[in-house]
Amino acid sequence: MTVVIGFEGSANKIGIGIIRDGEVLSNPRRTYITPPGQGFMPSDTARHHRAVILTVLKEALEQAGLKPADVDCVAYTKGPGMGAPLVTVALVARTVAQLWGKPLLGVNHCIGHIEMGRLITKANNPTVLYVSGGNTQVIAYSERRYRIFGETIDIAVGNCLDRFARVIKISNDPSPGYNIEQMAKKGSQYMELPYTVKGMDVSFSGILSYIEEAANKMLSSGQCTAEDLCFSLQETVFAMLVEITERAMAHCGSQEVLIVGGVGCNVRLQEMMGVMCDERGAKLFATDERFCIDNGAMIAQAGWEMFRSGQVTELEDSWITQRYRTDEVEVTWRD
Amino acid sequence: MTPDHLVALLCPPLHNPRRRRGGNMAPEKSATVPQFLRGAELVKQGAEARVYRTQFLGRPTIVKERFSKRYRHVALDEKLTRRRTVQEVRSILRCRRAGIPAPAVYFVDYTSHCIFLEEILRSSTVRDHIASTQQSASCTVQELDRDQDRELVQEQELEQLAQQVGQILAKMHDEDVIHGDLTTSNMLLRRSPEDRGSDLVLIDFGLSYISALPEDKGVDLYVLEKAFLSTHPHTEALFQKLLKSYSASSKKSSAVLKKLDEVRLRGRKRSMVG
Ligand SMILES: Nc1ncnc2c1ncn2[C@@H]1O[C@H](COP(=O)(O)OP(=O)(O)OP(=O)(O)O)[C@@H](O)[C@H]1O
Ligand SMILES: [Mg+2]
Question: Which helix (H) or strand (E) holds B218?
């Protein structure tokens, strides 16, 4: 039996999870929430993570009912993400690894999402839509790499949603995306927005600048409600995401889709993807917020796969990096 | 195609079931096939269209039907479907006028969003061609280099193909046509009747538009680069050949390639949080 503990803190969530051979033993998490209209800054986020990380670590071990001696490997997020929070978490991971005398493993955050999604849903070889605050990618596996077929050519979809939320002062608690989703359910009027798809790539900056410019005017003139805007924004950006996923599936001849990343727990996105899959006779796999949103178990799971295939990270190589593409990682654990 | 089909086709408003029915009838399911396509052979369900093989006035024909997508809002769906049908026809005509090989457009039905295209006979996608060439090359390696000459020939053949692609794209961009969905699936390789050489045909112009901006052309190449390298592993050098031939063939290539570099850098510099 192999037990891996995973440390994640690349953005405003800090999570520590423990995995034993595909079983999630614990996965506690905290979120740094900023006031409406504000995004999270690296140094404040790092301060938040520093303040709670030892409590979360204790919870992770207690809930799993394990002692440090039971752990075989300590995995942490090497990148991509925000520098200061990444450093904070890597530092703690390095320290406990030395205290406990266990090997370290630096994990690519995106690979963590993919491997967690595969574990939970049992999807075998899916086309992956990875959508979060910092990433928007359509990925498929071949020849030892997760290859990026499509991605955003400017900002990520989650970033577009978050920044829209700031414009009309939607609460960041529990997350701007969640609140947009709830408001969208009450919207009915579809306002036309720019729609930009380029092959398997998408662009969101045009939509964002359009809506940043027009939102408050449309609201104050009574042309539409905030709920209508949430509804229209979701309908537009999610249609773009489903379209590029379908194009990648047609291109690769794939019959499975897996949605991962924080935006992936949006039920409307899952529903639209489900309709597309139905029409193609394909199968949809998705998870809920426990595993979609950044968490420690996903780093533990990717770490588990890497560790079992013989990888470890030496102490002197245990740095972090803000930019780390999904296709840089050699996948040593799949054929 | 039978005379009945033809009548159905040439008088679409009368015979289109959606129009013929009374307003209080249940809306049609998107899976309903237009009457004139019953009996046509479904070749492929692409990302946004169903592709059929049939005969039109005695000629081998591909019908591309953009059916409505139930996952998206009706207003958005109608806008996209209409716009893409129009754009596809418009760009094909523009390319053909400039001597860039693309299938001839035989007929368009804007009610059912069907485009009737010349079927490109004796063709395969560039994607399949590269994949099978690469596969047979790697077999040769496993056979302990028994056939090094053949491998070399195949490599040269692929390089020639990359050059051909570069040239045709340069010509297309010089006409200010942005394809919008450049992949190796959207290029057909047509073998000449006596199997002497082959030429390239561009298809699938649904996302195309007209623009003279180097930025748009650069993004067009960027989209191709990513699709190319992810679909065909270990082809970085081959893609460089393609770009080199593009830059040699296009009058305006230097501004475009500069933009391509910029777009690539944007991707690499993007901070990725979450
Ligand atoms: N004129 C043609 N002659 C021969 N084959 C064709 C022709 N047009 C299309 N095809 C075949 O049908 C496939 C799909 O066509 P096309 O790319 O136009 O549709 P699509 O729905 O946009 O596809 P996708 O979204 O998967 O790219 C092509 O890859 C090709 O194999
Ligand atoms: Mg196509």
Answer: helix B214-231
Residues A154, A218, single domain; the answer is yes
- What letter represents residue A106's amino acid? G
Pocket test of ligand 1: the residue of B42, B48, B61, B62 to mutate, having most ligand atoms within 8 Å of its CB, is B62
Is A131 marked as a binding-site residue?
Answer: yes
The answer to whether residues B111 and B175 belong to one domain is no
Residue A94 inside a domain? The answer is yes
CATH number of A204's domain: 3.30.420.40
Q: What residues in B contact A187, CB-CB < 8 Å?
A: none
Same domain assignment for residues B78 and B204: no
The torsion defined by the Cα of A172, A173, A177 and A178, in degrees rounded to 10, comes to -160
Tens-digit pLDDT profile for residues B131-148:
998 887 665 555 555 567
pTM of the model: 0.90
Q: Identify whether residues B99 and B200 lie together within a single domain.
A: no
A45-54 pLDDT, tens digit each = 999 999 999 9
Structural domain boundaries, residue B260: 123-137+149-271
ipTM: 0.90
Measure CA A203 to chain center: 19
